Amino acid sequence: MYYPVHEMFHSWQGEGDHLGKSAFFVRLFGCPVHCPWCDSAGTWHPDYIPENVNRIDADAIADTASAAKPEFVVITGGEPTIHNLSPLTKALKKRGLKCHLETSGAFEIKGTFDWITLSPKWQSAPLEASLEMADEFKLIVEEENSVEKWIETLGKWVDGRSIWLHPEWSKREESRILKAITEFVKNNGVPFRAGLQAHKYYRADLLDPNSAKPSPLGGDPRLGF
Known about the structure:
The protein has six helices and nine strands; from the N terminus they run βββαβαββαβαβαβα. By secondary structure, it is of the alpha/beta class. The protein has a single domain, classed as TIM Barrel.
């Protein structure tokens, strides 16, 4: 099984329950969701995607990840679940590696994962099966009422699992967005948690020369990184 790989690099998880842990990232090409503020547009946007896409087999990916000796491997995108991830997770687990997934939940999840982060998007609703499998949720707060809208949409899936509230990155310094997240967490408590993409402040991913050049959307690209 060959996978279209945008980048593979060693860094640390900058978000969610596993914040700060050593992680090896495998970012795959392809995404039908097309968020207007996407921070990895190089995986799908015609203005950023390269002419030649590297296709690497599952065992080669797993060997590269294993050599880095991370605590776990994060498979992300784009939207990684448009691919059959079963051969890749099998290869990773054969080498004793834990497998994490970052997904919008809009497509069937194929593969065996130790942790699933689900970040739903308005452009493509998550599947109920994906919502049930998620270990944590990450909600992107674009506007002051984004959290309330998402909670209403998620309905019964708002339970004891962590629900991280992240400001959309290009709006991370807008006081109205930060205040909306702060007040929601103060007023509601568990399972809601204020979050941020901490790795971007450290520029941690960019320290690995194998990471791809940033390609954020949403206004001035210089605001993205």
